[in-house]
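[Backbone geometry]
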Amino acid sequence: MRRTASIALLSLLALGLWSGHAAAQPPPDGQLTIAFDVSIALTFLDPAETPGIGVPFVFLYALHDALIKPLPGNDMAPCLAESWKESPDGLVYEFKLREGLKFHNGDPFTADDVKFSFLRYRGASAKLLHDRVKSVDILDPHRIRFVLHTPWPDFLVFYATPATGAAWIVPKKYIEKVGEEGFRRQPVGLGPYRFARMTPGVELALEANEQYWRKRPSVKRVVIKSVPDRTTRLAMLKTGEADIAFVMIGLEAIAIKTDPKLRLAKVIPPATWWMEFPEQWNPKSPWSDRRVRLAANLALDKQALNEAERLGFSRLTGSIIPSNMESALRLEPYPYDPKQAKRLLAEAGYPSAFDAGDLTPMPPFTTMGEAVASYLAAVGIRTRVRSMERATFMDTWRSKKLGGIIAAASTAPGSAAVRLESFVISSAPYASGGYPDIDDLFQQQAQERDRKKREALLHRIQRLMHERVMFGPIFEPAILHGVGPRVEEPAVGLSSQLYFPAPYEDMRLKKP
């Protein structure tokens, strides 16, 4: 009884401390409007649907919360999980959950929601996670244990970081009550903002969650508008219709930089742009010849692309794995050498121009695709730039239906192993083929608990990728956002792992 009374007293004291802290903060005020660069898909609001890209986390960071996630100063900050521990044999991970939290609809947050969210998850690496986890055991309402079949050094990277959405928690009781369609229409989460209304593909309105555990948001309402056209986003920023304009590159970025009323916020997250050659696995395709793939790499003036697209702020690279990721191998970019590119094409049997089919850029970056196509054409590789809507592009890429060349990009956080699992090994969702020796090395590193030995295996894979010219790396892009005069803190770059304004509760408008 004494122990129960002590716990109750501590809970009341903690509640009082939080209430006092909240009372000291001014109430949320004002509206901040974001001009978003792609169409807003309903799946972006559901953690269970998270693909291996960064875009959905723009919305998950607002509406939902995770056991662990990147926050300023800590790439694996405790959030819904106050703490966690791994067993000495690497088979058990136990999480202590934060108590007293409630979903936006008032349902209490418990271990039941964590287990339900994991089992419901069907996004990137879902099969990998479900196959490797033997059981999920609820020890009490605020303690949960994951038991693995075999030791897996990357469990936390795949489960509890934005490499996937598996540890982003949704309310079990609410979804069981309203069903999947009901949750899709009215998503409920634990994040700093709650769902207010949405016009699918057009606009999302969010209201501040004043009970958010980390801090009370200072902005009352955040409106995210889908504006795929950069010139329109720039116009909205200039007129004040938007306060932040996402991903402003090229001429629009220059216009912002030279406007005294506006500013550029920039960050280089763990992201990469590259050329993907999905037909390299087809022996009848020109892309099956290493010399053709190498010629395509030598054809690109990457620094000129950097200057034109990102004002020179990006980092050139020879790898599709960002250099600031764990176990990344720093590789020098292929040089710009169009004469050698033409010689290689002639040796491969293409002394004059050949038709390489479509060149499909990651939407909405059509200018990037056009620039790459222009450089390729200059050495005799003719392509047709094919524009697609973002959701359609991702579905088509995952379905292995894209041929020719893909001007690809990924801003998804994680590690070298996560990138390999997403884009390189034969079973990767975005790979059209692979190499048995690389697949074997990947399986070896997945079981290796010695960090140095494991990193050596990952580096060996990356060297093989480079030697075989599996990809055409371009640069690690600087993500540039336009910021209007009303914004004091856009929250861009507070975490180096994220390319978007985050955490949302740290955004601030200037006082009138």
The chain has a mean pLDDT of 93.
